[in-house]
Amino acid sequence: MTKKLILGLVVCLVINFSSHAQSKSEPYEGLKEWQDTKEQRIEWFNEARFGMFIHWGLYAAAGGLWNGEVYPQHYSEWIQAWAKVPSKEYSEVLKPQFTVENFDANYWAEVAKDAGMRYVIITSRHHDGFSLFNSEEPFALHNDVTGGTNISPKGRDLYGELVSAFKSQGLKVGAYYSLLDWQHPDSYEGFQFNENKKGYTPNHQIYKQYLYNQIKELALNYETLDVLWPDFSRKDSEGEAWGTREILKDLIKWRPNILVNNRFWNGLENKNGDLGTPEKYVPPTGLPGMYWEASHTMNESYGYSKHDKNWKSFDKIMELFVETVSKGGNFLLNVGPDEKGELPQPAIEILEQVGKWMAVNSESIYGTSASPFYGLDWGYCTQKPGKLFLHVFESPKSGVITVPITNEVKNAYPLAETEFSLATQRVEGSVELSLSEKRYHQGPQLYVIEYIGELEVSEQKVASKEDGSIVLTADNAKVSSSNGIYIKGASHNYPDKPNCIAGWSNKEDYVSWNINSNRPGTYKVLINYIPEENKSGQVEVLVNEKPLRYQLSSSSTNKMVEAEVGNVELTQAELGSTGIHVALKLHQVQGDELPEIQGVRLVPQK
Ligand code: GLC
Question: Where does the secretion signal sit in this chain (predicted)?
Answer without folding.
Answer: 1-21
